[in-house]
Amino acid sequence: MSPNDNWRAALKDFLDKTYQECAQKQYEFILAGSAATAMQNCRIQPKDIDILAKSPETVNFIADLMSDFEIDEFPSDDIDLWYSSKQSRVFIIKNKERNEMWHMARWMVQGVKIEVSFMASLSTLDDSHEFGYIWENGPDMYPHVKHLDFGTYNIGVVPLEIQLSSNYLRKLHDRVGEIARIFHSSGFNKNLLQQALTSEQYQDFLLRMEDFSKFPHR
After folding, report:
1. Gap between the Cα atoms of 164 and 160, Å rounded
2. Closest C-alpha to 161, from 113, 215, 126, 197
3. Minimal CA–CA distance to 61: which of 21, 32, 1?
4. Can you list the alpha helix ranges (DSSP code H) found in the chain?
5. Do residues 91 and 69 touch, judged by C-beta distance below 8 A?
6. 148 near 155, Cβ under 8 Å?
């Protein structure tokens, strides 16, 4: 396995520790972020693994299962430097102004950062409804989860149609273009795409798809 595939080895280690136990207890989680994009045949190299938990209890349960990967020292209060430890397995972030709360656990596995989080944000959810897109980490995404085989496991991933809006908002235009390439060669769910994107994003994406039709070997 090449160094660039470390994320696959790390994900396998994570699933070996958590998959069966979570399934038995009906604690649900899915793959999000760049690893979910790569799992759907996009030519990107994930630098970390983002796992989206469906409840705060799921984060707590997984954090207990992943105790072998905890750090020894007390974690930093800086969220960017924090990792799960015995003293603090789950980091909770509250933002009263935006009516948000995050529950998060994080480890380094085979040199790859793995983060499991539950996100509740009424302000972001309201924004997605107002501007007409599906928030990648919100409850409106779950009815559209796609399931893929990964070794002996079958895991849910955020579909590319819904990931597009986040990539637009984060100005990750290379990823938008790569998803357009995949859709041009393999097809996509047009109804979901219309729901997932703002009208402006949708029109821009249709133009990108037209470009692939004109220049199929780009």
Report:
1. 6
2. 197
3. 21
4. 6-25, 33-39, 56-65, 122-131, 160-169, 173-186, 190-196, 199-214
5. no
6. yes
What per-residue string of b and e applies to 66-76 under the rule 16 or more CB within 10 Å gives b?
Answer: beebbbeeebe
Residue with token string 């100005």: 171
CA 4 to chain centre: 19
Q: Residue 111 gets which letter from DSSP? A: T
163-209 pLDDT, tens digit each: 999 999 999 999 999 999 999 888 999 999 999 999 999 999 998 88
Nearest partner of 196 among 131, 124, 130, 133, judged by Cα: 133
Match 């136990």 to its residue by tokens.
Answer: 21
Q: How many CB atoms lie within 10 A of CB 27?
A: 19
Q: Are 9 and 133 in contact (CB under 8 A)?
A: no
85 and 72 Cβ atoms separated by less than 8 Å:
yes
